[in-house]
Amino acid sequence: MGKIDNEIELKVLDMSWDYYKLLAQQRVTHFNLFIIIIGATSAVVATQIFVNLRGNMIALASAVAQLLLCFIFYKIDIRNKFLIKHNERIIKNYESRVEKGIPQIFITEEKNTKDIRMSDKDKIYLFRQLSISQLYNLFFSFFAIVSLFEGCLAIFLIFTE
């Protein structure tokens, strides 16, 4: 195993780590923003549906907006995940070159995650250890389904009034 003693390599590693932190924080911030916006549009649907024809149309528009937001935030998360994984690969490359005894956070995490997933294979999906991406996708999917239901209910109410 070699050392990372080249000043340029250390700067690249520092830059990769800083970029990794920025992207990870950005991913969490986007998810928090999603929760706030979905909460606000859900409140609009809840207050407008069943009111009158105009209220049902507002509820329908809000449900469509929610569905679109679920898709947009899902795509943003996919892109963030790609960028984070890219930086993880760079950092793992440096970790693989350091001396034994120095913690290899990303390499160890990847190995431990694979081991856990292998031991969880026989468990029901929701009782397995899920990745952040899988949990985010469940969240996005749940709200997409809720939005579809709200939209269908609003359409039904519009045509039955």
Descriptive labels:
161 residues, membrane, transmembrane helix, 4 helices, mainly alpha, transmembrane, 80% helix, SMODS and SLOG-associating 2TM effector domain-containing protein, elongated, 8xMP, 0% strand
Overview in brief:
This protein is mostly helical. 80% of the residues lie in helices and 0% in strands.
What structural class do helix, strand and pairing data support?
mainly alpha
- Number of extended strands: 0
| Helical proportion, percent range | over 70%
Which regions are unreliable across 5 or more consecutive residues at pLDDT < 50? none
List SSEs in N-to-C order. HHHH
Mean pLDDT: 89
- Determine the number of helices (DSSP H or I, runs of at least 4 residues): 4
Radius of gyration: 22 Å
Can you tell me the number of structural domains?
1
Distance between the termini: 75 Å
- Quick one: overall form? elongated
Task: Report strand %.
Answer: under 5%
Taking the sheet with the most strands, its summary is: none
Describe this structure in words.
80% of the residues lie in helices and 0% in strands. The protein has helices spanning 7-48, 53-95, 105-119, 132-160. The protein is mainly alpha-helical and 161 residues long. The protein has four helices and no strands. It holds the Pfam family 8xMP. Keywords: Membrane, Transmembrane, Transmembrane helix. The chain crosses the membrane at residues 31-51, 57-76, 135-159. This is SMODS and SLOG-associating 2TM effector domain-containing protein.
